[in-house]
Specification:
heterodimer; A: about 250 residues; mainly alpha; Ferritin; globular; B: about 170 residues; alpha/beta; GMP Synthetase, Chain A, domain 3; 4 helices; 9 strands; elongated; binds zinc ion
Chain lengths: ~250, ~170
């Protein structure tokens, strides 16, 4: 597989899978305003994935459309980080997952403004405006919930225990990301790691909580080795296109 | 010849004026500032647009409507090209577009778009579109569509949409 195709596909899958996950909150948010915030963010993520899938399809050159790539692949072909596919859990877990991802995405898109590929630069410029809002929103909620009630703090601590193990994958590159960095298409992961940790520590300091020290970091999603949760998500997301191929609305 | 092309372009812009944002029907796509270019080639008309937000569900519909109105007016071969850079900003909303928004009950963006990273930053001070009171509060930076934030007037108690700076 062409490495630039794989790299862009990975970015698209991150946005699509997290967007799909977050959309499960639609109609179930703790309060109306936050229900709308989550669905807005979900929509932005799916929108970003569309631009990236279109580019991936062009790079692959086999005539696959954004819909083919989004809906007609099997689990092992998805290259999203494990973090993106983790279940929503409670509001605290959703917030923390979003914050970890936004902190990565913000610095990743910022770095991609310097990509050697013009379309990647354009997508990054556009997406960064949206992700800036997302990161502000998730950062503020991390602080509110940690610095909130005994109950909200307990839930954030539980979420941290559950999610921390999936964060290492965000800044640990796999082969196609290393190639993309070398060619100028992608980003320097040493820098992304530093910026991500700074961002997380900054907000955690304001909230009054510490990042766990050490611990095993899960990996595999970027290479198609997923947790069991992705299959269920795909079954839900792909059902219509699998049952009625090419169906439009 | 050059003059002919200029007047033809003007004519095309007049047609585009009739295409509205399906989510805020008082705004034409020209008011929104999403039409970036009109390129006339031999037997081909290219309309260049840019989305407000990447996930804006109105874009596909807008593309269909642009083609329909132009094809209905003799431009058989019309293509709509979407570009992402430079990224759309509320600075491109026209003045008449802002007036239409306010008359529709949505407060237009106030000031220039700027990066907003400061946490818990004070929200823009926005006057209520119903009673003009400045005693309002932001309820959420996310609203009924991607481009709007939700506010509430503390005097007349009416909630309202604010077309946020972006
Ligand atoms: Zn009022």
């Amino acid at each position: 597989m062409d490495t630039s195709f794989a790299y862009i596909l990975h970015l698209a899958d991150n946005a699509l899978i997290l967007g799909q996950r977050l959309s499960e909150w639609c109609g179930h948010g703790p309060i109306l305003e936050q229900d709308m915030a989550m669905t807005n963010i979900s929509l932005d993520l799916v929108g970003q994935s569309r631009s990236l899938f279109q580019l991936a399809g062009e790079l692959e050159g086999k005539g696959r459309s954004e819909d083919d790539l989004a809906f007609m692949r099997v689990e092992i072909d998805y290259k999203n980080c494990l973090l993106a596919e983790q279940p929503n859990g409670d509001f605290a877990k959703t917030i923390l997952r979003q914050f970890f991802y936004d902190a990565f995405s913000f610095h990743n898109y910022t770095a991609l403004l310097q990509s050697s590929n013009e379309q990647v630069r354009a997508i990054a410029e556009k997406s960064l405006k949206e992700v800036t809002y997302h990161l502000k929103w998730s950062s503020e909620w991390v602080i509110r919930l940690v610095d909130g009630t005994e109950e909200s703090l307990l839930r954030m601590k539980t979420a941290l225990l559950e999610l921390w193990t999936f964060t290492g994958e965000l800044y640990t590159p796999v082969d196609y990301e290393i190639k993309a960095a070398e060619s100028g298409l992608g980003v320097d992961f040493d820098k992304i790691k530093t910026l991500w940790l700074e961002e997380v520590n900054k907000v955690f300091d304001m909230a009054g909580i510490k990042v766990p020290v050490g611990g095993w970091m899960q990996k595999g999603g970027k290479k198609g080795i997923h947790t069991e949760h992705l299959g269920f998500l795909l079954a839900d997301m792909q059902y219509l296109q699998r049952t009625y191929p090419g169906q439009k609305w | 010849m050059v003059k002919d092309q200029a007047s033809e372009k003007q004519n095309i812009y007049k047609l585009l004026e009739q295409v509205c944002d399906p989510e805020i029907p008082v705004l034409s796509i020209l008011d929104l500032g999403i039409v970036r270019d009109v390129i006339l080639k031999e037997n081909l008309l290219e309309i260049v647009i840019t989305p407000t937000y990447t996930g804006c569900p109105a874009m596909d519909m807008i593309e269909v409507e642009i083609k329909a109105i132009l094809q209905g007016n003799g431009y058989e071969k019309t293509i709509v090209k979407t570009i992402l850079s430079p990224a759309w900003t509320t600075d491109w909303l026209t003045e008449s577009g802002k007036e239409k928004l306010l008359a529709y009950g949505i407060v237009p963006p106030k000031g220039k778009a700027k990066g907003k990273r400061a946490l818990f930053a004070d929200a823009d001070e926005i006057a209520c579109p119903q009673c003009n009171s400045e005693n309002t509060e932001m309820i959420s930076q996310f609203g009924s569509t991607a481009c709007k934030a939700q506010y509430r007037c503390k005097d007349c108690q009416e909630p309202f949409d604010y077309f946020k700076c972006h």
